């Protein structure tokens, strides 16, 4: 095979049961091979995960930086950088703290306290990724399970709008399709795998059934399945480009499994009907439960994107896009989300924690970002660095620092530390806490002045 | 710091103090016999003084709650308050955010709450929420009734190994006791099925609810845990379910108690949901008599009620097949959360209305149970929060229990549907609780049922967890003043926790971190080792998480209170 790599033999120690800080699979079975304080090899991870862990020093942000009068980032000491960040935040009228999906819950705690103190908006990548999914969940329900239920019971796994083989490379291998489960002792052979996707993706290639309905045909297709489940005759010969007999056959097959699992990705969330696609997929799964067992699950992208939603929900009652400007929490889609606030040019200071807003934001939002102060907390140089006014180099959760995360199915995992961070970096948790303390101090001084 | 609560009217049922005017003293966080002349005096002349409240069954922290909060922003939007100098902003009605939960219990004079359903796989999540809930000590119970290893031990009747498993798993999940929910039914839900009654086996496992409950109760007594098994029987919410409930109690009748700190070998939770007669919702009626008679005639069972409060709320339980039935009935949005090898969970919003015949019947059955169980030490006040209503309604329930007049009025003026009296005997029940009985069902009783040795009474040496209410018991007729009773119990004049004043005149004046109570069993090392040898291969094969990452590390319990138990003693 072309990409065969010889196993790493030159290492000093192994740290077992480490958790991958990449996709929402949060694989916690990795072995890190350590030499000279670095991870030189990773066992069990997929290529995405392994490369993220091993290339930790690539483009690594190592020292705090502040953008000077000349428009260039210049290295500085931690005190100056933190003071600058605190000063910006304390002086802000409409700050947004965005990102969080690639850091620990422990870090989020300090971020939330800071947000409540200054009246910020706290938001994460859900706002641009599975936000519509969560809106649909609020409309139609949320029948999920942990991934082990799928591994042990599922005889049908259905991927829709998700090319799991590329985006979550071990999802099929570890949780759904291939593993031997208690009631599925032969693993892959005991399951039917279905992919619904206009594209013949790598996941489709691994499937028993590929339904390549038309682009944007999702809603109509699910509607047709629901109609068949309810015993209706389909009127059209073709549904979203698929012969009606095939639709009927699939509906029948879905009804007759013992345990079905539907995994949906951004392909479903971001085509024409957006949250309506998820609405109807949820309703279809609810319908199917009158016949047999079905669950569904959004294929969450980052390793703690679900964690932020869970954390915010238990702390504030709302999952993302939470606005504290008025001294209490508000959550209004279209009003309190990052993109809305940026597009309306409301935001005046933007702190981005382990995320790349530039890459996925619409033009207007990006343009506004270029015009306001941006504080970046991250481990790698990225598009955010290009627009950042203060850069605070963090450390790598699950490698250099421990932290709590929530897998895509909500299972909490303690991601332990395996090696030390570069000496000049700081843990995200420490950085946000330091900013909080400094902002508190500024606020106290302002308060003392005002009362004089 | 020393304090005297001066001249209050004290209700301390554990010490047989029923409405005596006396001083209560505390020092350095504990109740004491005497204090020095320097003690700070809090004048509570003619006010009610009780131990702080103990909620023996609620759902306040963990994965089900968070699913509720994520998918019901309409609930979170109710009850939003502005932050203050010391309080964070609140949110939620039936599923409040964690800080709101702590504040609201605290304002009602509560100091301890039992979180009744922790799936071990997600126990870290529960503990994270506990840590975000201030002013309350939280007592998590771990779910065992559908655990695959438990099903196997029960089937093979290996009680000693099962006891070892419980000891090990309480330590892994950092929980206090054993919860059983719809034994075998939640496992059947893994296939979209349920079991019906106590003798309907779980598919594949070929073990029945009877075998599981019995085995767990025996193992619980072998260990001598401070709490008994905590049982949510099969068939919850189904008309005609009272025989299943009675059989479940009977099944555990002969199990020998091995504890000096509690009286029961089984706690039947939210009994109201398990006390229905009839065959369908069309002919349903009350089965409260059968449950109450059993409890009155036997000493091995205690109950809490799960009183319907007639509110819009969010139901959530590990009895996931029941929740799906509820969804099919109401059509309101359905959430579900099954947990590998351990349990299931379902969540559905419900609108309990006094206009609805069924809800009114449920309301009346709950009250019947309170009024028909003679010994207040055997029955506790709960709403199975948030299932039958939010905990902030406890004061209203107290007002109903203390006033026959109010109950009759509600039936007469149709605040509740006539099914409330046509299909129950509520209209004929004149009993009214007195303050001492209220103190028993909200404080002393729950403390005894959980075997607490540090709270629930004003005994010297106990935690100074105290509530004072602005009610003069000698100058109020609760029968005629239900509104004043509700108001008085809603906002404590003082809530004192570990000797610190947290609430004054209904306002929170101090916010403190909560404690987490868990049980550490000693003396089962050999059995535990045998169990781990047997369990590990299956654990590795069938869970999707590594054992090292499964356990709850100490870091998740910054303020633990550990009850050490010597197994068999
Ligand atoms: S599947 Fe995801 S979590 Fe697992 S190793 Fe690959 S990138 Fe990491
Ligand atoms: Zn309950």
Helices and strands in order:
The complex is a heterodimer of chains A (452) and B (569).
Chain A: E1 13-18, E2 30-35, E3 38-43, H1 47-54, E4 65-67, E5 73-75, H2 78-90, E6 95-99, H3 105-118, E7 121-124, H4 131-140, E8 141-145, H5 147-153, E9 156-160, H6 164-167, H7 171-176, E10 192-196, H8 202-205, E11 209-211, H9 218-229, E12 238-239, E13 242-243, H10 244-255, E14 259-264, H11 266-269, H12 275-288, E15 293-298, H13 305-316, E16 322-323, H14 338-343, E17 349-353, H15 357-360, H16 363-371, E18 374-378, H17 383-387, E19 390-393, E20 403-406, E21 412-415, H18 428-450
Parallel strand pairs in A: 6-7, 6-17, 9-10, 9-14, 10-11, 14-15, 17-18, 18-19
Antiparallel strand pairs in A: 1-2, 2-3, 4-5, 4-19, 7-16, 12-13, 20-21
Chain B: E1 2-12, E2 17-27, E3 30-32, E4 40-43, E5 48-51, E6 53-58, H1 63-71, H2 73-76, H3 98-107, E7 110-118, H4 123-131, E8 137-143, H5 148-155, H6 159-173, E9 177-181, H7 185-188, H8 209-223, E10 229-232, H9 242-251, E11 266-268, H10 288-297, E12 301-304, E13 312-317, H11 320-330, E14 334-338, E15 346-351, H12 357-372, E16 379-380, H13 394-401, H14 404-412, H15 419-422, H16 435-449, E17 466-469, H17 482-490, E18 494-497, E19 500-504, E20 507-508, E21 516-522, H18 525-542, H19 547-550, E22 560-566
Helix pairs in contact in B: 5-6, 5-8, 6-8, 6-18, 9-10, 10-12, 13-17
Bound molecules: iron/sulfur cluster (SF4) and zinc ion.
